[in-house]
Amino acid sequence: MHASLVLRRRLVACAWAVFAGLGPSSVVLAAPLAEYGYRCAEGRGFDVAYVSGGGAGSALVTMPGGTRVLPQVPAASGVRYADGAWTLAGRGLVASLDGPPGGPAPFRDCAAAVRRTVDTVTGLRFDWPTRWSDARVATFATEGDPGPLGAPVRYDFVYQPDDTAAPRAVLVSVIAYPRATWAALSAADRAKAGSEAATNASTVFVVGLPAQNPYPARSEDGRRFAALAPGRDEMLVALAASAPPGGAAAQAPPAQRTEPPPSTQRAGPPPSAQRTTPSPQETLRAQPPAGPMSSGPSEANTAGAAAAGVLPLRCSGNEPSWNLQLGADGSGAFARLASSGTRTAKLQGALTRVDWLPPGHAVWRGRSGNDIVWVATLRAERCPDTMSDGVDGAWRVLLSTPRDEVLVGCCRAEAR
Questions:
Q1: To pair with 92 at 20 to 30 A between CA atoms, which of 120, 219, 375, 401?
Q2: Are 287 and 402 within one domain?
């Protein structure tokens, strides 16, 4: 048989095997990096991939001008990464980034606004839909059989029901083909395994969507799956960052997947949660990834959305007695009872929902007339207020004031 025909048959077989498991020699990879996009009050921003390894972790910080790897260092509170020139400090969902003296202006009052899955080998940069959360969607990566032109890598984004015994189902698969492999597949005059969505210098990204909802239409899982499943147009937007502006003019050789150095070791589930087969339909439930909320980073989209469905809110606490009214437009009115009278402040701000972090969070940032920043971190949970009218709040809140104090209380919805 002619060698080129043998090659074509192998490639076509590989294409058909991609969605079925990538072949008998496929290798389960560590989970891809989870990256956060921080957006700051002055309109600037930076991206951070939190990486875990043996011992202390590190942070891959991408900012205007380049990328730096910052090792984790001890912190009195929150998390801290520093290399002697740059320092990244975070608490909750808020972070700051400071450079060397005489360098760029510091990044201050920054909140996590985007969550994406990143693979530095293939160039994947996949922005999660804002309605996804780590509680509902797990990520798995599998490398296929190494062919003569390179091995494809499949990323499965898997829906996770509440019932750990219930079957998991793939919401969407993204396959990263070496460009030469995809070109040979296209020339084979056979149906392609998926739909081409983005390309870069070395890789073609192909999207595979489920043919149907695997759960009964009227079941809770059926409704959730339908709500979370993305469409093709949405995937084109989500993968846009994987293709550099202007496309890839030159074809680089397929990237080689080598073990990264310890400072950039990929984060992934602990060994007890690693898959033993390529199928994402197994009974192991993915471990919830850690992120900027944890004391040590591991893996971590945020639903960087507006305040729809959250504001207006009335927040209050006791000992000391205080309250914060948040309007539908994000404005705030603070009042605190003190021995010398009532202290008040009028604030202008905005709220960002962070639905990916269970059980649901939000961050409100406001400024007073003298440009001092106030930050309220809200967590969606029942919050009893024993000293008010007996109506429980729907959010627990930590309010950071300009006096470097943290006030604790509850928030409940106000009539619109």
A1: 120
A2: no
CB within 8 Å of 387: residues ≥ 6 apart: 318
The structure tokens listed for 46 are 């930076």
DSSP symbol at 53: -
Partners of 373 in the β-ladder: 367
In the chain, the number of structural domains is: 2
Residue 204: strand, helix, or coil: strand
Who contacts 140 (Cβ-Cβ below 8 Å, separation ≥6)? Answer: 28, 31, 155, 156, 158, 275, 280, 286
19 shares its domain with 46: yes
- Kindly report the number of other CB atoms within 10 A of residue 165's CB atom: 6
Rounded CA gap, 78 and 401, in Å? Answer: 17
Is there a single domain that holds both residue 297 and residue 371?
no
Q: Please answer whether residues 12 and 190 qualify as being in contact, where contact means their C-beta atoms are separated by less than 8 angstroms.
A: yes
Cα 391 from Cα 411, distance rounded (Å):
10
Helix residue ranges, H only, 241-367: none
- For residue 157, name the pLDDT band (cuts at 50, 70, 90): very high
Q: Please, which residues have CB within 8 angstroms of residue 241's CB and are 6 or more apart in sequence?
A: 116, 125, 126, 127
Give CA–CA dist 104/84, Å, rounded: 15
Burial classification of residue 364, based on how many CB atoms lie within 10 Å of its CB (0-12 exposed, 13-18 middle, 19 or more buried):
buried
- The model's pLDDT over 251-274, given as tens digits with 9 standing for 90+, comes to 333 334 433 333 333 333 222 223
Indicate the SS3 state at residue 242.
helix
Checking DSSP bridges between strand 406-413 and strand 373-383, what pairing results, if any? unpaired
User: pLDDT of 126-140, one tens digit each?
Assistant: 999 888 888 899 888
What is the spatial distance between Cα 204 and Cα 221, in angstroms, rounded to a whole number? 32
| Start-to-end CA span in the chain (Å) | 74
Q: How many residues does the chain have?
A: 416
Transcribe 209-241 into DSSP letters: --SS-SS-TTSHHHHHHHHHPPPHHHHHHHTGG
Give the domain-ending residue among 302, 327, 357: 302
Query: What residue type is assigned to position 179 of the chain?
Result: R
Residue 242 and residue 379 share a domain:
no
| Last residue within a domain, chosen from 252, 278, 302 | 302
Please indicate, yes or no, whether residues 142 and 168 belong to a single structural domain of this protein: yes
**Mean pLDDT lowest for which of 72-81, 182-191, 280-289, 375-384?**
280-289
pTM: 0.53
Domain that includes residue 106, residue range: 1-302
- Residue 257 has which token pair? 């997947």
- Domain co-membership, 337 together with 259: no
